[in-house]
């Protein structure tokens, strides 16, 4: 935890769980990405944490923005980004939202099938924008192996289909701009980009055979943040990606962009929460300790779904003896359990009213928090 967050929490008036995000950490992360991938443009994935202060800082630092909706586009614009620094990276868009984005001036769109290409072309006509000014990139499937939060199946087409999708874009008068993929979020394997870049280069070659000259590869997100396990440094990702680009594209490396979300803001945030109840329950396997916090899956910790993301949790009693417990949230929904399959070690002396600090919570927390489930307010967010 940074000294700035510690100081902020000491002085805050207690009013339920909150996340505190330290902008110095975000600034540091941005410069690490810029140094590790010097020839690559950064499109911050707004969905990870759309706090206006975070977006403003990144806009000032020169970042571009990957957005998933018109609301995110408007947030990026409000933070100072111009439309040419914004991509509409969701492959599932309403035609009227594409038209709105085009009216706003956004010209870069993700697609993964011919139907989405046709929506972009029709929306351009509706918005009175020349199709030739609109760039589309085709997202290809990635199995997400090695990632703790894989994004496979739902997005992207098989590489063989991408060439047809891009050719379809050209038939509609759009600019076939490139290829994108996402190797899965919290990707611990620095080599994970290699295979996808092999597929991307094959698509470039096949498109060229059909007279279509692509310009860009979108390397997506996937860069991890520190939870319990040690993760490779951003430099290692940069080196591995550069090696893979050279291997597959030789001396004709295309324009590249990255879309980091978790890796940009995850370690910048800490949630302070409170123990509401500690109870012992008899089960077939013996007595089990349950610890209930005032935050759970519906208060922002949705990424504990399947227990895939395991956050580091600190308390003031961490020098005491530790024992595993089932950790749960405060709502009346039995799904609101954070860790049960693999119980979480917490101090045996933990008591009602104790504070806990949940680290690595700068990404994918505030936006996952329900507005008023069970009457609990959404997660408060402070950016310092
Ligand atoms: N780009 C796209 C299109 C995404 O859908 C996501 C996450 O869902 C990201 C980037 C950010 O990924 P990460 O947080 O793993 O960096």
TrEMBL record:
Q: Which residues carry this modification: N6-(pyridoxal phosphate)lysine?
A: 47
One GO biological process this protein is involved in is: putrescine biosynthetic process from arginine, via ornithine
Q: Which residues does the entry assign to the active site, renumbered to this chain?
A: 332 (proton donor)
Which pathway does the record list?
A: Amine and polyamine biosynthesis; putrescine biosynthesis via L-ornithine pathway; putrescine from L-ornithine: step 1/1
Look up the EC number in the record and give it.
4.1.1.17
Q: Which SUPFAM superfamilies match?
A: Alanine racemase C-terminal domain-like (SSF50621), PLP-binding barrel (SSF51419)
A Gene Ontology MF term for this entry? ornithine decarboxylase activity
Q: What InterPro entries does the record tag this protein with?
A: Ala_racemase/Decarboxylase_C, De-COase2_N, De-COase2_pyr-phos_BS, Orn/DAP/Arg_de-COase, Orn_de-COase, PLP-binding_barrel
Which Gene3D superfamilies does its entry note? Alanine racemase, Lyase, Ornithine Decarboxylase, Chain A, domain 1
- Pfam families in UniProt: Orn_Arg_deC_N
Which coenzyme or cofactor does it need? Answer: pyridoxal 5'-phosphate
State what protein this is by name.
ornithine decarboxylase
Q: Write down the species.
A: Microvirga makkahensis
């Amino acid at each position: 935890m940074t000294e700035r967050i510690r100081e902020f929490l000491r002085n805050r008036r207690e009013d339920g769980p909150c996340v505190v995000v330290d902008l110095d950490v975000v600034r540091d992360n941005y410069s690490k990405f810029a140094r590790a991938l010097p020839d690559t443009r950064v499109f911050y994935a707004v969905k990870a944490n759309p706090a206006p202060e975070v977006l403003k800082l990144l806009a000032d630092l020169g970042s571009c923005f990957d957005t998933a909706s018109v609301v995110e586009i408007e947030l990026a614009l409000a933070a100072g980004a111009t439309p040419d620094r914004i991509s509409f990276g969701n492959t599932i868009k309403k035609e009227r939202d594409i038209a709105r984005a085009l009216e706003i001036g956004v010209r870069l769109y993700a697609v993964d099938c011919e139907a989405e290409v046709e929506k972009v072309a029709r929306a351009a006509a509706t918005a009175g924008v020349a199709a030739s000014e609109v760039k589309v990139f085709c997202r290809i499937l990635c199995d997400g192996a090695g990632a703790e939060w894989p994004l496979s199946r739902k997005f992207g087409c098989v590489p063989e289909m991408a060439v047809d999708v891009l050719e379809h874009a050209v038939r509609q008068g759009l600019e076939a701009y490139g290829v994108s993929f996402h190797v899965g979020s919290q990707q611990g394997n620095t080599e994970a980009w290699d295979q996808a870049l092999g597929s991307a280069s094959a698509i470039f070659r096949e498109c060229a055979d059909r007279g279509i000259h692509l310009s860009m590869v979108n390397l997506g997100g996937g860069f991890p943040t520190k939870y319990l396990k040690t993760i490779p440094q951003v430099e290692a990702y940069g080196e591995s990606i550069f090696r893979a680009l050279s291997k597959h594209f030789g001396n004709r490396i295309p324009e590249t962009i990255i879309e980091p979300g978790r890796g940009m803001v995850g370690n910048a945030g800490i949630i302070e929460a409170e123990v509401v109840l500690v109870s012992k329950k008899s089960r077939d396997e013996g007595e089990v300790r349950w610890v209930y916090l005032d935050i759970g899956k519906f208060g922002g910790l949705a990424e504990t779904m399947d227990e895939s993301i395991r956050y580091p949790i600190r308390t003031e009693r961490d020098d005491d003896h530790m024992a595993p417990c089932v950790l749960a949230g405060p709502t009346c929904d039995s799904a609101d359990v954070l860790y049960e399959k693999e119980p979480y070690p917490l101090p045996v002396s933990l008591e009602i009213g104790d504070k806990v600090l949940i680290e690595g919570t700068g990404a994918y927390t505030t936006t996952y928090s329900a507005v008023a489930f069970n009457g609990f307010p959404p997660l408060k967010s402070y950016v310092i």
